[in-house]
Amino acid sequence: MSAYLSIRNLSVSLRGGTRILRNVSLEVSASQVHGLVGESGAGKSMIGKAVLGTLPRGLNITGGQIWLDGVDLMTLPPKQLRAKIGATAALIPQDPMTALNPSKRIGPQITRRLVDILGWTNARADARALALLGEVQIPDPARVMRSYPHELSGGMRQRVLIASAFAAEPKLIIADEPTTALDVMVQKQILKLIAQMQAMHGTALLFVTHDLGVVSKVCDTLSVLYAGKVVEEANMRRFFMRPIHPYSRALLAATPSYKDPTGSLTPVPDAVIAQVERDIAQHDTRNSA
Amino acid sequence: MRDARANLRRPLGLRLWLSGGWLTLLVIGAVFAPLIAPQDPLAQDLFAGRLPPFWADGAQPGYWLGTDSLGRDVLSRMLYAARLALIVAIVAGTLTCLIGASLGLIAGFYRGWPDMIISRFIDIWMAFPPVLFAILLIAVLGTGLTSIIIAIVVIDWTRFARVVRAEAMSQSAMDYVASAQVSGRTQFSTMLTEILPNVAPTILILLTLEMGIAVIVEAILSFVNLSISTDSPTWGGMIAEGRTSVHQAWWVLVFPLIALFLTVLSFSQFGEGLKDRFDPVLR
Predict the structure, then answer these.
(1) Cα three-residue angle A213-A216-A218, rounded to 5 degrees
(2) How many helices, marked H, and strands, marked E, lie in chain B?
(3) Yes or no: is domain A3-100+171-288 CATH 3.40.50.2300?
(4) Residues of A whose CB is below 8 A from B183
(5) Which residues of B touch A112 (CB under 8 A)?
(6) Distance CA A167, CA A87 (A)
(7) How many CB pairs under 8 A join A and B?
(8) ipTM value > 0.85
């Protein structure tokens, strides 16, 4: 079992110097699902964006390495970098409503990657796209291929995006809160589908979410992020049995449970936050010194 | 599964019919002007000066919309003027669109220094009073059809650049653009294949609007006698001439004015109608 994606001491900062990610390290092994949890603004999406080279304007990688499939991405020139990422990684985005080009039919949006990256013929790519749409349980795939995005529901679009992410058989898929924009019933189906597809294709999956319930269902290992710093890295069993970091424990205590639906939820205590903030301040002074 | 709106038959709409109808009429009139026009547009006949339109007392057959003070037939002159108006509308409108939209697209998609340069240019450009700017340009370039077209392009590209830039910026923020980037596309090809099709409806509307504006600008310049040489009739020139004799022969002023008004209105309404009809996203 080798680490397929390995992030070492990655730091990302805003142009003014504000730190977004602080020496983040994590590994995703082949055919493993690694969860990335944290509250809003913790920087979990930014890790995915840094890997895929789609960081928003003004954010820059200021240190560290990203090893993808045995290559350090930071050392590649821009053109090869794009080709490498295109050939080995894919994204399942958060909001299916904006992730498909509204002026193009579904079919070409899936086959484009196959033609671009793998150099397939259109006919072969079409056949593959049709098969994939079947795999993600879309009824009447032939018709969906000819549809425009606005003709599909949110759940349908997310299925299309999943099919499209798996199309070129990438070895790594980054799912950036893939169920957040969907309603609860659809969420469950989509989650199941992603897990199925991942198992079937043996892809390494980096699953970004703020929902510990979701993590417990699909992930093998996870990292807990707070203010751009990994506070705990663990495998699932250990994390839910014995969380080590006080912030992780507080996070778990703040999650509703099926077993005790009437039990009250504990918000993350101020003392825990204060301690984490102190740690981070220390970390920052150590690094700037 | 299929969106209900997709099955909804959208009727062509009165707006598209009316504006399209007027523009078609105009194109036919302009193209076949030599065949349709009852008189030579330049022929003067001082004995037939200021004849009223056909329904009024004293009208003469063959001069449907009357004559001006030099005895030239108003209808014939309007038909020939429509040729110039349409040429200006189409050529100047298209050129303005090409230049303005390209710059706006680049500024909005690439941001950074290209945006800085283009946006500052737009700001400076828009600070000039447009009509004075046009008059100045014509004075430098000399009168003539080409000068008019150049003047319109130079003045009006900012209209496209501004709007297309804003639209390109909002489209660039969408996830599908990031997806295209992840799949190994170059920036340039992303701009052309992902962004451009989605700003195209906006560009189309602006183009039709711009065609109307080009007609107006040409009329304004004709009005101040800075358009095409005085012997080729233009609506603006006719309005200018009609103004001096409006109390004796109102028709010399009013008919070109109506044509101008209908044309400009039709261009803008035609664009709106097309958008309603063909925009797949129904924004």
Answers:
(1) 110
(2) 13, 0
(3) no
(4) 86, 90, 112-113, 116-117, 168
(5) 183
(6) 11
(7) 84
(8) no
Helix, strand, coil percentages in chain B from 3-state DSSP, rounded to 5? 75, 0, 25
Q: Cα(A279)–Cα(A271) distance, rounded to whole angstroms? A: 12
Domain range list for chain A: 3-100+171-288
What tokens were used for B81? 């003027």
Q: From CA A193, how far away is CA A160, in angstroms rounded?
A: 12
Asked if the Cβ–Cβ distance from B183 to A89 is below 8 Å, we say no
Mean per-residue pLDDT of chain B? 86
Mutate to test the interface with B, among A151, A158, A164, A176 (most CBs of B within 10 A): A151
Torsion on CA atoms B148, B149, B155, B161, rounded to nearest 10 = 170
Q: What is the rounded CA–CA span in Å between residue A278 and residue B254?
A: 80
Strands (E) in A156-228, as ranges, are 172-176, 204-209, 221-226
User: What residue in B sits closest to A58 (Cα-Cα)?
Assistant: B112
Report pTM.
Answer: 0.81
User: pLDDT tens digits for chain A (289 residues)?
Assistant: 467 899 999 999 988 888 889 889 999 988 899 999 988 888 888 999 999 988 888 888 998 999 998 889 988 898 888 888 888 999 998 888 889 998 889 999 999 888 888 888 999 999 999 999 999 999 999 999 999 998 899 889 999 999 999 998 899 999 999 988 888 888 888 999 999 999 999 999 999 998 888 888 889 999 999 888 888 988 888 888 888 888 888 888 887 766 666 767 778 888 888 888 888 888 777 766 4
Task: Report the alpha-carbon distance of residue B34 to residue B17 in Å, rounded.
Answer: 27
List all residues 6 or more positions away from A56 whose beta carbon is below 8 Å from its beta carbon.
Answer: A49
Torsions phi, psi of B73, nearest 5? -75, 125
Instruction: Tell me whether residues B5 and A150 touch, CB distance under 8 A.
Output: yes
